[in-house]
Sequence to fold (195 residues):
Amino acid sequence: MAKPAPSSRQPARVAQPRKGATIEMVRLTCPDASQALKIAESFGTAIIDSDGIRDLHERLVIEAADALGDGLSDKAMQIHLQRIVGAFVGSAHGAGQFYSRAVTEARDATAKAANDARDEDIDGPVGYDSAAQRKREFAADMGIQAHSLRMAAEGAVAAYAQVIGETWKPFDRPVEQPGASLSRKAAQAQISAFD
Fold:
C-alpha cells in the first residue's frame, strides 16, 4: 500500500489576539513611589517627582482633548483617547517587564558573586565595578524609568476618566473565527437550496 504524499500545505495559523496591558498590570510590574524613592536613595540617583509626572500627563491629555473637542464627536474622542492612553499604558507595562527581568539578572549575578569558588564572578581590577554591581545599577536605572512611565500612564488613565466619564480599559479585538463564518455561509447556502 502506498503512503500518501505529504501535504505541502501548512495548517493555517489562527492569530490569537494579544490582550492589551491594563493599568493593574502596570502597577504589578512597575515600582510605586515608595519603592522608587528607596531605589534612588540606595543607588544615589535622582529622586523623581512622581506626582509632578502624573499631574503633567493628566493635564496633557485633558488639554489635547479640549483642543480636539470641536472637531471630534463623542465616540471619535473616546476612540482617540482610548488609543492614546493605551500607548502610555503599553509603554509603562513594557518598561515594567524589562525592569523585572533586569532585577532577576541582578539577583542571579549577585548570588553567583557571593560564591567564593567561582573565578569568573570575582570583582574586576581596582577602579572597575564587578559584573554583579553593573547589573544592580542597570536594574536600578530601569526601575526609575519604569516608575516614571507608570506615573505617566496613571495620569493618562485619570485624564481619560475625567474626559470620557468612564474607566479606561484596553481595547481587545474580538476573536475572529474564520471557520465559523465559513460554515455559517455554507449552512445558509444549503438552506437556500430548499426554497
About this structure: The helical segments are 23-29, 33-43, 50-68, 74-113, 131-164, 178-192. The chain has six helices and no strands. The chain has a mean pLDDT of 85.
